TrEMBL record:
Residues noted as binding ATP in the record, renumbered to the chain: 12-17
Native source organism of the sequence: Photobacterium kishitanii
EC number: 2.7.1.24
This protein's name: Dephospho-CoA kinase
Function, in words: Catalyzes the phosphorylation of the 3'-hydroxyl group of dephosphocoenzyme A to form coenzyme A.
One BP term from GO: coenzyme A biosynthetic process
Pathway: Cofactor biosynthesis; coenzyme A biosynthesis; CoA from (R)-pantothenate: step 5/5
């Protein structure tokens, strides 16, 4: 089985950019956000259970889950949110493990935005944190998502603090600088992870 490198970072830190740079080296990416969509896709157990609970009105015309309606429903009811988490988290974890098992590159990246918050670094051999200062996070998120400062601050307060992530990290990529600095850091870590994977054989 491939060595598993966990990849996380706060909103606007550049996780996707970093993950894509590793992908350019032929490294398999396992993305929790993509898996979270797959476990509620048409025909999935997840979608069947959600439809049983909420009725057909939770679906869009094409049969897909109406995510905004579901978000609104659980936002106002902690019990429903808890029910949904208990349904989806095991399905997501199971799919992550299956994808890790199928990984064919020497090491793979498990990308989980809320890795530290949910203690999912237990599924990894090492944890890589993409770190930026808060001002950069806010600026990038505003540019990318066109959301208000209040919304961003609310998201930041719901995530682990920068220090909590750094305390959990085995490796850190600093993404405050330019693209060249980022490329250099990824290249160095790629070589390091290849050596780890070789030693683990």
């Amino acid at each position: 089985m491939a060595v598993v490198i966990g990849l996380t970072g706060g909103i606007g830190s550049g996780k996707t950019t970093v993950a894509n740079l590793f992908s350019d080296y032929g490294i398999d990416l396992i993305d929790a956000d993509i898996i979270a969509r797959e476990v509620v896709a048409i025909g999935s157990i997840g979608l069947a259970r959600i439809t049983e609970k909420f009725g057909d009105s939770i679906l869009l015309m094409d049969g897909n889950l109406d995510r905004s309606q579901l978000r609104a429903a659980i936002f106002s009811d902690p019990h429903l949110k808890n029910w949904l988490n208990q349904l989806l988290h095991p399905l997501i974890r199971e799919k992550m493990l299956a994808d890790i098992d199928r990984a064919r590159s020497p090491y793979c990246l498990l990308i989980v935005p809320l890795m530290v918050e949910n203690n999912l670094q237990t599924m990894t051999d090492r944890l890589l944190v993409v770190d930026v200062d808060q001002q950069t996070q806010i600026m990038r998120t505003q540019q990318r998502d066109n959301v208000s400062l209040e919304q961003i601050k609310s998201i930041l307060s719901a995530q682990a603090s920068r220090q909590q992530r750094l305390d959990a990290a085995d490796d850190i990529i600093c993404n405050n600088g330019d693209n060249q600095a980022l490329l250099t850091q990824v290249a160095q870590l790629h070589q390091y992870y290849l050596a780890l994977a070789q030693a683990a054989k």
